[in-house]
């Protein structure tokens, strides 16, 4: 055995040469062999598959970025469309009010309803005009069709309206044909129907008579349409009267605010307990 290792180390260069030649001959033999061809084909297919997977992964990353970009573009376009549609709708509503031949809107402040609270009792509206626009508390709010309500709170850019369909709202009204007077109120429930109180059964009021605001109102100017009588039920001393309101609150978008009704002399004398020396 020692002689073998001595011989191996002595002639190892020749042995390695023989091994290399054998490997070369093997590759030369395989050059025209199907096995080598299969190996080449397999390596090409493997490389192609790897490249395809890498390409797909890169495509997915790029697709996510492209989807994000398209989403931002679509969001921007949608916002612009909505703004344009809202502006167009507001302009149509404004034009409808301004071009109404039965109503003169000059001297009124126009505002848009930007929020609302609807319930069976405490309905409220919010408009985009405040004291910077000349809005003051107790101003009358209306549309060409009729009375909407009154201003109850004002900030710099906004104002709150108590509409007719609020159980705390009251206003003096009168019939435009029989001159029957009463107090308009709303008992809750159906928003298109209000009630008229304090109408005696001796009153000549008839169905379908139109009611308007009267001079007795402490905030509203006279003659603003309120609604039409649709039911009259006699009680012991007074009628129970239902009124179909002139304003459709479900589609209310633009309103007009009338100048503040200021009658200091009337208010002072109405609150005066004694007239005596005040009169000439």
Structural description of this entry:
By secondary structure, the chain is of the alpha+beta class. It has 2 domains: 15-99; 109-261, Beta Barrel (Thrombin, subunit H). Helix content is 36%, strand content 25%. It is built from 4 helices and 12 strands; from the N terminus they run H-H-H-E-E-E-E-E-E-E-E-E-E-E-E-H. A 6-stranded antiparallel barrel has the order 1-2-5-4-3-12. A 6-stranded antiparallel β-barrel has the order 6-7-8-11-10-9. The longest helix is centred in the first third of the chain and has 65 residues, at 34-98. The N and C termini lie far apart (154 Å).
Quick structural overview:
The protein has about 280 residues and is an alpha+beta fold. The chain has four helices and twelve strands; from the N terminus they run H-H-H-E-E-E-E-E-E-E-E-E-E-E-E-H.
Low-confidence stretches: 273-280
Largest sheet properties = 6 strands, antiparallel, barrel
| Strand order of the biggest β-sheet | 1-2-5-4-3-12
What's the helical proportion of residues? 25-40%
Can you tell me the CATH topology of the largest domain?
Answer: Thrombin, subunit H
The quaternary structure here is single chain
Cα separation of the termini: 154 Å
What is the CATH architecture descriptor of the largest domain?
A: Beta Barrel
Number of helices: 4
Structural class category: alpha+beta
Total number of beta strands: 12
> CATH superfamily of the largest domain, please?
Rod shape-determining protein MreC, domain 1
Order of helices and strands: HHHEEEEEEEEEEEEH
Strand content: 25-35%
Mean pLDDT: 77
Overall tally of domains:
2
CATH class of the largest domain: Mainly Beta
Write down the overall geometry. rod-shaped
Radius of gyration: 44 Å
